[in-house]
Amino acid sequence: MMKKMALLVALxxxxxxxxxxxxxxxxxxxKSISSEDKQQLNPSIYRDLIVWEDYRNDPYGGYTGTGxxxxxIYLYNISSDKKIPVCTQKSGDGTRNSAQQNxxxxxxxxxxxxxxxxxxxIYIYDLKxxxxxxxxxxxxxxxxxxxxxRIWGHYVVWIDYRNGLDGDIYAYNLSxxxxxxxxxxxxxxxYGVDEANKAIFPVCDxxxxxxxxxxYGSTVVWKDYRNDIGNGNxxxxxxxxxxxxxxxxxxxxxxxxxxxxxxxxxVWVDMRTGTxxxxxxxxxxxxxxxxxxxxxxxxxxxxxxxxxxxxESVGNRDVIKIGSLNGQAKDLIPGDWNQRFPAISSIGVVxxxxxxxxxxxxxxxxxxxxxxxxxxxNSAPIIGDVLLNPKEVPANKETEVRVSVRIYDPEGxxxxxxxxxxxxxEIPLYDDGxxxxxxxxxxxxxxNFSVKPEKSGEIAVKVVATDEYNASSSADSVLKIEKxxxxVLKIEKxxxxxxxxxxxxASMLIFIVIMISVYLIRRKTNRELDTKDEAxxxxxx
Length: 541
Prior knowledge:
Number of helices: 3
Shape: elongated
Distance between the termini: 128 Å
């Protein structure tokens, strides 16, 4: 147990900086995450962590229905190239199979739909907590089903059937701390039904059905049936948890479903043209738009930043398309096989891929759905201020200079760094604690170099960092060269006794000059007064 927890903690370290997406395109890198001969479905991704529904321990080896079989939840860390089970729980009494399905992930928190108790409950696992229960913590205890959870920040949302067959949207506040001791309720040792009920609240429990919940920040969106009276008019609604405000997103008189949200942009599948197509709306400006003008059927959209992907039926196969909000799109992976369940994050896309097939004992073709990852976005390493010590060097004298600079990669990629100038060429920078760079692994890179400039001026210095995927960044600095001084008398102004003596001598000299001037002025004045006195005496005579 503890070994598994320690491994999870190590795998879950995530760089804290939030990054913006690069432009669509770039260097695409496809990678098979799982190659089991059993199915892997419904992947979800957050930064470099991927979770999915895995059937390697299922007696049938693949999906046979909601809540059936024995699928488990697995995780893969892209940065460390490690794969581990998150939950492989059987039924509560251990006598029968138990399905864990529909996982989602945000940072170090994984949630999923769990059937170990005979109905669907929502469970959560904290990848950084070594003291939590193995196979997750139960968030919901209602006897009816809670399904398809989605998580962002402090909130988990799901479809809830506690009020009947027409599902509602409910949420759990993970920051709920009912006893005020600074520990969230769900982390308490005595956590149970009472604590859960204090953290759970309805997002929308309209008497009609709500499904397909998605969340970003404190905004929840879903498919709503309140305007559907058998005429195919399901709509997209939203709710802001912070303000308590519910709002319409799209109520056009055709079906809209499968919403996804990022920031202020919501995308969904829309039937207004008769063929399912991807539409979107900026909920701040109210601007609605069609994402792709393709006439092919489209479904299962997802969005990150300004990039959207979806599943599109082309001929007799389903392929993933990736595009921007302005309508530009391309095939994610060209091929003649089917793809399913696309999801996107800050660094790339995951999906279930059907390229691997085999024949069963009856000669039928069986698709082994495996999870694939494709890096579609890559931010270059981030370089801080380039510090040079000293900042100025004399001309015609060899001087050793120390350089230090903070560098990190927002995606955790490996990278190399070097300093470059006309005087030095390329000099590698290190973070090993042996190149005057501080402690090893502290993110401060350093090196020493020597210069002997021939004349005063400046030396342009550049630091370049390049990650393993060839994304590069640079930062500039300047090494100043002092004017050449008299080699016999070079005066350093700071803390130099000679400079102090010269200052005193100069002050005394100025004082003497002033005193002599005063003496001469007084002497002249006295002479003038004596002359006037003599002239006055002569007039009196």
